[in-house]
TrEMBL record:
Residues 18-143 form the Response regulatory domain. It comes from Novosphingobium decolorationis. This is Response regulator. InterPro entries: CheY-like_superfamily, Sig_transdc_resp-reg_receiver, TCS_response_regulator. Keywords: Phosphoprotein. The lineage of its organism: Bacteria, Pseudomonadati, Pseudomonadota, Alphaproteobacteria, Sphingomonadales. PROSITE patterns: RESPONSE_REGULATORY. The modification 4-aspartylphosphate is found at D76. Gene3D superfamilies: 3.40.50.2300. It holds the Pfam family Response_reg.
Amino acid sequence: MVETPPDIQTPSDLVECTVLIVDDDDVAIEGVLRSFRRHDVTCPTLTAGDGREALAILRGEHPTKHISPPYIILLDLNMPDMDGFQFLQALRNDPALQRSVVFVLSTSARDQDMRRAYDEHVAGYMVKSAVGPQFARLADFIRKYTGTQNLPRDAL
């Protein structure tokens, strides 16, 4: 009989994580949400229109939107007010948020943007046009990722 060490989580121990979608494009957000529904991604979701709103949510400073770990962030790069790169820099400089798992979901396929994002320790970089029609591949990826990964349950 094989016993699971007490410090290793089994799939039944995995806590459903929230997906924070940071994007100013309502059509893209709706596409992601529709794809999640169609492909049985059961994670709760929250949306933010730019990096500044996302930081307010993550820091517990937003008046109506609240999030608790575990969570992952789907981040667009091109947004008004605070873009994705500015958001990543602020996130990585915040001791309470620096370990946040971020996947970039962008229209940009430029190597320069990908390198810059990975320099900010993103977990992955997806180009919206390569993700596929209706974001089906994204939904499948998120379902598998959140169903198999152990994410931090609290800040620090």
